[in-house]
Known about the structure:
This protein has helices at 11-20, 69-77, 116-120, 125-137, 152-160, 162-177, 186-189, 191-197, 203-210, 229-242, 283-290, 295-302, 352-355, 384-399, 424-438, 446-449, 453-467, and strands spanning 3-7, 33-37, 49-52, 55-58, 64-65, 84-86, 93-96, 99-102, 107-108, 111-112, 222-225, 246-248, 255-259, 262-267, 270-274, 276-279, 306-317, 329-331, 346-350, 364-371, 407-418, 441-443. It is of the alpha+beta class. It has three domains: 3-79 and 229-304 and 421-467, FAD/NAD(P)-binding domain, CATH 3.50.50; 103-210, protoporphyrinogen ix oxidase, domain 3 (Orthogonal Bundle); 306-418, Alpha-Beta Complex (Polyamine Oxidase, Chain A, domain 2), CATH 3.90.660. The strands form six sheets. It has a seven-stranded mixed β-sheet. Strands 12-2-1-16-22 form a five-stranded parallel β-sheet. Helix 2 packs across helix 17, helix 8 crosses helix 9 (203-210) and helix 12 packs antiparallel against helix 15 (424-438). The chain is globular and about 70 Å long.
Amino acid sequence: MRRVVVVGGGISGLAAAWELTGGGAGPAGETPEVVVLEGSARLGGPLHTVDFGGRPVDLGPDGFLGRRPEAVDLCREVGLADDLVPVGSSGAGVWARGRMRPLPGGLALGIPTRFWPPARSGILGARGILGLARDALLPRPDMRGPLGDRAIGPLVTRKLGRHVVAALVDPLIGGIHAGSVDEMSAAATFPPLLAAAQRRGSLMRALRSEVPAPDPDAPPLFWALQEGMGSLVRHVADALVARGVTIRCDAPVDRLERRDGGWDVIVGADSVPGDAVVLAVAAPVAGRLLQPHDDEAAGLLGAIDYASTVVVTLRIADDALSAPLYGTGFLVPRQSARPGGDRWAVTACTHLSQKWPHLARPGEVLLRASLGRLGDERAVGLSDAEVVERTWDELTILMGLSGQPLEAMVTRWSGSFPQYQVHHLLRASGVESAVSRLGGVAVAGATYRGVGIPACIASGRAAANSVS
């Protein structure tokens, strides 16, 4: 029987182990023996759920896209179909020109596809509206021919103007990746934009052609799980153990060593032999393990930056709100400043108990604020108490809150957001090609082709198929 060692017990590694053991169909005669090695004390990586205020609250991703099938399929395969919860509200806000304003309709990942909704929203001001009008009436031609990739910020700036990027595009796309659209790859993060930008004429009109209108009969845009994302990790892990998979936590891998017909995975004084290895770990760890075997792969992995964020989860009394909450939350543009002060530390806030009705309790509201992004490490250097104080002070202004929170919890995600900079997909392809030449090695995870839960599951399953 072959043995495959999966390094990394996040959702990508667990999905790889699931696929190696037969996926939804279950084990068959040729199913390999699988060992999962996780360096930390628990499985799941950023998928982590804790009890907060008497309900299961996620400290990392609180849901996943419903219009990609991978996460929904995995939930069904491990018996969580009845626990899927659709998103309970729609719409979001953005802090613009001194107050909170609803995001307009007709946006494609923050990029306007029509003139009037953002023009009437009050978000842009005269210069921003002028940029939209120019694109609608006298669109600027692209001065360069077709390219494999472009940075989102400069590309949209040339077509729609810098004010549109700063007020709408960077808060949304940049916020998702905790980075800046000035260096962010269009091909890796929003391919329809790259296709639309290479058409003649208006960018907004081209985007309308590239991005289909929402289908009212489509599944919900987002799903959560009744007991949190951690329940997916537990169910997959339990099912893997039932299939005979060995799972070891607190087992950081020191190095990989070649042996005849396979690899030895070294964990302290232990050597775990395998015919194949799946590296479902972040780029710095994968690069360190691959360095002795392939300089090209290690070099490409070393070129990928990571951002750190701090998340503050708050339980507040509903009478602390001065007005009803709107939508699922709000965004704060990177360059906007507090009244009479420096730039906001808060980049976004989710109305957790409104976004997910199963978290709602009478008389209380759950909020989750995010702080930090690439190039802004201010929150990382603060103590937990200082982070909570700064967050509450800012939310008091942004949301009109009063009093003090009933409960607060700080979670730090250090180096957890890979940055998809221009030509990222070429780097990812280069790494994948290099490790395939080694024989019996594959890579998986958010580092490569998508940071969301469905993309990570797809990455783990693809890696499993490449070594099976």
